[in-house]
Amino acid sequence: MTARHDVVVVGGGNAAISLAARLRRLGARDVCVIAPDQDHLYRPLLNFVAGGQARFDRLTKPMRSVVPAGCTWVPGLAVDVDTDARVVTVDTGERVEYVDVVLATGLEPDLAATPGLAEAIDLGWSRTAYLRDTVESTWDAIRETDHGRVVFNVPPEPAPAGGTALKPLFLACDYWRSRGTLDRVDVHLVTPYGSVLDLPFVDRHLEPQLERFGVTVHHGATVAALDPHVGSVTLTTDDGPRVLDDVAWASVVPRYRAPDWVTGFAGPDTGGLVDVDPETLAHRTVPRLWSLGDVAAVRTRPSGGALRRQVEILAENIRRSRTRRPLRRYDGYTVIPITVDRKRLLLAEFDRDGTPEPSIRRVDLTVPRRALWFFDRYVEPVVYFRALLKGRV
Length: 393
Ligand SMILES: Cc1cc2nc3c(=O)[nH]c(=O)nc-3n(C[C@H](O)[C@H](O)[C@H](O)COP(=O)(O)OP(=O)(O)OC[C@H]3O[C@@H](n4cnc5c(N)ncnc54)[C@H](O)[C@@H]3O)c2cc1C
Hints:
Elements lengths: L1 E3 L2 E4 L3 H12 L5 E5 L3 E3 L4 H5 L9 E3 H4 L5 E4 L2 E5 L4 E4 L4 E3 L2 E4 L4 E3 L6 H6 L12 H10 L3 E6 L12 H14 L5 E6 L9 H13 L3 E3 L2 E7 L4 E6 L2 E5 L2 E5 L3 E3 L31 E3 L12 H19 L11 E6 L5 E6 L19 H17 L7
Parallel strand pairs: 1-9, 2-3, 2-10, 3-6, 10-20, 12-13, 12-18, 13-14
Antiparallel strand pairs: 4-5, 7-8, 8-9, 11-19, 15-16, 16-17, 21-22
The protein binds flavin-adenine dinucleotide.
């Protein structure tokens, strides 16, 4: 069966739903969303679940309740886009013709890229907020730990808001501090960057917090392999391999990659991500194909916060392209919220070059604040479901 729609958005996450809603607000009459999921997940709270500050059942809403009114939802996985015929094929066999198509599939965890990780997860030895099945058990592990070596990592790019992987680490350390066990827990952080996040304007606030909790930081390092049977984590570092032994458990965020079929739209240097002009979000070579969110090569660190700008610009650009008006440009704005303990959080807001781009000027949001923790934990989820997913922001 072949259906026909004006704008077809592939994906059911933050990017796809917010964009579909925004397009509707701008007057698009015929928007179709292709998404397999029966529920929609608010991912930023996952780190709070892993850190024992939120419940998983508060993170999801049925997909049918978030697909914007007036949009058609085709349940299923897109498996191919024929850009000559302008048709998306869904795994159900359905075919959907489009005038404009937007790829918003997000990234997939690539467990096989880290030998031993899949087994470590199966054995409950590695747990992370980034994998749905281990979010809640991450908090169990934190709660049950009162001594031993624990390893956390910041994943290399591309990854969904990789810097927020620091949240469970800080929440755990502060929990162990409050229980009086922190001096018996040997916490290690593995980061691919030369400093904590390679963002000097926030690293200067993060470093004292890591010191305060006695965290050993491995800079310029990535997790290369895990062996849950002997309790070791092998790192690749700028100085060669390094093995951390006697590890009680690890919280390893996997590597990420674009879905296989999407790599057909990648460019020579986009690492498998969709080859868009990072400013206009239009594909560099394929007409009427656009992309945004984690799967788009926008040359900035992916985040939900980055989507606020991307959604607004892309919705406008689809409209402008039809009347051949100049397209709007995205400067790569992104944001990483990081809890530094169980009651304070800081915001790293920056552009494509890593230059700070604060959303407000009067208060320095890179300084850890209680109000920011409250906002991120309690206000953002409400803003997300009531405004962002409805195309209002
Ligand atoms: C643990 C964690 C914590 C985070 N914390 C924060 C934070 O504090 N602040 C922040 O700003 N950001 C945060 N993020 C990042 C943020 O959630 C992502 O940047 C954002 O969700 C990206 O949206 P997306 O729609 O591009 O991708 P996703 O949210 O991954 O959604 C992709 C969607 O596409 C669907 N899909 C995949 N393949 C297909 C296909 N073939 N056909 C149809 N549909 C398909 C998927 O099922 C999914 O519904 C966090 C992410 C994680 C994982």
